Amino acid sequence: MFLRDIWYFAMPGEALKSGGLANKVLLGEPLVFGRTRQGEPFALRDICPHRGVPLSAGHLYDAGSSGCGEAAIECPYHGWKFNTSGVCTEIPSLVPGQDIDVSRIRVRRYPVREVNGNIWVYMTDEKRADLAPTHEPPAIPGFDGKSANIRESMTFSCHVDHAVIGLMDPAHGPFVHRSWYWRTKASIHEKAKNFAPSEMGFAMVEHTPSSNSFAYRILGGKPTTEISFRLPGIRLERIHAGRHRVVGLTAVTPIDETSTEITQSFYWTLPLLSVAKPVLRRFMRAFLGQDRDMVNLQQQGLRFEPRLMLINDSDVQAKWYHRLKNEWDEATAQGRPFQNPVKPVTLRWRS
Hints:
By secondary structure, this protein is α+β, with helices and mostly antiparallel strands. It is about 20% helix and about 35% strand. It has two domains: about 5-130, Rieske [2Fe-2S] iron-sulphur domain (Rieske Iron-sulfur Protein), CATH 2.102.10; about 150-350, Naphthalene 1,2-dioxygenase Alpha Subunit, Chain A, domain 1. The chain is built from six helices and 19 strands. The chain is globular and about 80 Å long.
């Protein structure tokens, strides 16, 4: 089950060049993304309705050369052109007298937003393809108009639910990420964190990082952090260290039922971190790789369809995730406002 009527992270803005096309499968659907010469991104269903050829294999013409006064994708098979709204503007094989209203031929268009260098796409059920977005994708607080300083992406061979729950799990660190520079079994101790509902999800309210969180110490000062989660699979961590800020955005995007893409982006105001980007990139890939290897290993057991356990308090965030998903699905189906099921609480666990 994939959530609908909601924004999903599609790709970094820098991955979509001006006048270029990029194809991507999201939620099992083929999409072609394009960027006009004016810099505007758009997305269409990546299948020509004529013979089923991917439009992404074609060419994006700008407004001055498309022949229709606006940017358009040309299918490589027979040259059919579709503008950025998905409307057919030309069928080259037609001759005078052949009465076809080409504008009635369309491919599905998906709403797209570009925020802080991130391209988001609004995924609805096909029956509601013309539905306007009911909300906006997340913005990075304090970094208006700025793109990520660093980012890494990795594909996990699992359903999106297992990727999301694995990444929000607070108790796996000393085992999955065990290393001399991060966590060891000896570093495990009791923790207590306050949680509250937030927009489309929940938040671990601002607090001083745990004593065994070495990474925060390099920021200097007395850092505080707030970690929030929002549907469909977005984790946002805001760190304050003196006058400097670091924000980490982790976006979990389902490709299909057995593949999920995780993209981790960081924004900062601390110049030292820019100098350390080569080292930070290695750490990011190592951490994502450890999470990927564990959820991929998990699939060996899940193929036997076992009954799984979620315990208090360390698995409460996973329980909230399922409740949030169910509520979003029901609210969407009933055409009513979303009602956040999360209540303020203090959770305790050892990690």
